[in-house]
Structure formats: C-alpha cells, structure tokens
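Why predict the complex rather than its parts? Because the way molecules touch one another can change local conformation, and only a joint prediction can capture that. The input here totals 391 residues.
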Amino acid sequence: VNTPVRRWVGSADPSRRCGVCQHGAKGRRGLASQRVRMDTEGSGSSALEEVMETLRKNQDDAVAAMKEAQNLAALQELRVKYLGKKGSVTSVLKSIGKLPKADRPKLGGLVNQVKDEIQALFDKRKVEIEDEEIERMMVDEHFDVTLPGVGRKKGSVHPIRATIQKAVDCFVELGYELVDGPELSPEIETDYFCFEALNCPEDHPARDMQDTLYITDDQKYLLRSQTSAVQARYMKEFGPPFAIVCPGRVYRRDDIDATHSFQFHQIEIMALGKDLTLEHLRGTVIHFLKRMFGDEIKVRFRASFFPFTEPSMEVDVFFNEKWLEVLGCGMVDPFVIEKAGYDPEEWQGFAAGFGVERFSMVINEIRDIREFTNNNQEFLEQFNFHTLDGA
Ligand code: DAH
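Output of the joint prediction:
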C-alpha cells in the first residue's frame, strides 16, 4: 500500500496522547457504556475511518450483548468473543497493514481504548451477575435452621458381645484371668478335653444331652459342646492355684427353634486353690448374678448333676414373676483334678457355666434366640450398647 511517510508531532502524537478522546495515553478509562468518541477529523485516512467504524460497531455490539448476559458463562464467552486472542476487537489490529504508516499508532491506541472499555464493562457486569446470583440463592434456597440436622448413625455393640463383656468384667474385677483364643480355648476340641477329662467317658449318658458334632470319622475331634473343656486344658497346662473366666462359642446338634440353636455362647469360670469351699462358690455366684440382674434379684440353688462337679447345683433367678434357670455350678469333682495330674486332697475349688444367649434373652426380654443371628437392624437398634461396658 502506498502510504506517504509522515511524522507525528505535538499533541497529535498517539504515543503520548490518545489523540482521539483527549485522555492521557496511559490510564484511559471511560464508562463502558459510553461509546468511545473517535474524532479523526483532519488527521486520518479513509482507511483509518473504516477500521474505526468497525471498532465502533464492535464496541456497540459488545456493550449491548454484555448488558444482556444473564450468567457468568455467557459473559465470559462474550469477553472471549471480543477481547480474546482471536476476538473481533483484537483482530481489528490485523487490518493495521492497510493503513498509512502514520495512522498505525493511532489505531493501536484506539484498540487499547476500546479493549479497556469492554473490559471495564465486563468487570462491572460480572459483579452484578454475582450479586444477582447471591440474591437469587437467598430467595430460593433459604432453609429452616430449626429443622433437625442429619445425624450420622453410630454403630452399637451386639447384645451377645455386650453380655459377654459385662460378665467377663465382673470376674476380671474379682481377679479372674481371661482365657480366650485358639490355643487354650479352641472351638475344634478333642473328645478327651471335652468329655473324657471331665469325668464323662464314652458310654456316659451325660454325653447324650450334648448330642455332638464330630468332625472326624474316628470321633476324636468335634466342635466343642461346652466351654468346660477349657477347664481341663488350662488345669493340665498351668496347674493350680488359679481362677479363670472363659467365654466362647459352642456347638450342639440341635433342631432350631425359639430357644435352641446349633451354635451359641457360654462362659465358664473355674477357681482352684487350697481352701476353697462351697460358700466361696455361693458368694461368687450371687455377686455375679446381682451384677447382671440388679441388687434386688432373688437367687435359688437347686441340687443337680454334672459329671465334673460334686456336689452340683443349678441356679435360678426370680425374674419377671418367674423362677428361671440361668446357670450350672458345683465343687470340682476330685476325679477331674486327679485326671489333670494334681492331688485332690491338696487342691479343691469350684466351677460354673452358663449360656450367654440365655442371659441376654432374660435380661433384654428377647423371645427368640434366632434374633441374635438374623442381622435384623431394627432388632439390633433397640439395644443401645454403644460402649463395651454399656450392657
Ligand atoms: N458345661 C455345662 C453345660 O454345658 C454347664 C456347667 C455346669 C459348667 C456346671 C460348669 C459347671 O462349670 O460346674 O451344660
């Protein structure tokens, strides 16, 4: 393009003065809504006129569109459309080559000015839209601060676990040692520890009551039917004197109904020493039952039979207007002490055993033993055993 070389002097020099709207070259800020006045009279070429017309149109369009924008995304899109790298205002600069050299600095200044105006409008509109958004949220999304919050549900301890914990705590407080785990209290037990060592030989009718789940053909191994097996194991391993409390799972071949299950829990206690008497047994059992049922509970001892105790007793509590059997106990039979390798003239003591499900059913008034293993959340939630000592 044949453009004559011209020098710019004085106030018309666009590097120092805008030359159009008479603002300083730096820090020009007009109201975005106010169209930039581009007075080029006498100083610009017709090509400049043309480019300036495009700019003016761009500015008008941008102002109109931004005023209409209803959200930040739309507004941002407009900013990119006009001011982005490929935006229409920016691209006006591309036509700079068409202008006489003397007009070029002027165009640069003008483009900057228009950009500033559009940017200012963008900033202003952005704040407005954000305010509108907050305003809208306050109207639409108001909520009732008096409504109850969304609580997080806390798990709770299973009633069986809670009963075991409470009973074990009682004995541990009395100085008993907790015996637990597969070495001294295995669920797969030998016939010897489960029966033989407890004065219950193979043909003894007491075995029938524990109709048993043998797991080998030679009937040497079985799922233990009573935690009493731990008595025999512990005694043989460590010898007297001792006092132990042994909670654990036991198994019996039983038809399932509201009060029977093929699998349940027992807790066994045993104390062996040099001068333990029936009165120690009575005191211990009464203390324990008061802990479980409350101080007012009435307790009754009845003569009974177990192969490993002599004398043997069954214990009832008077609960909800009825006598309920809850526990078996007795003085350790001399045979059992001798079988473990100790002198029954020197050592004697007592033992007791009870079913955990039975205790929990009586205390919590649960009518069906199957509830314990049904995984029915509504059932479990009734018992608020949140802490291990909360039974
Ligand atoms: N093991 C007995 C049962 O399962 C309960 C029992 C009775 C345990 C008397 C004892 C005891 O330690 O002395 O029926």
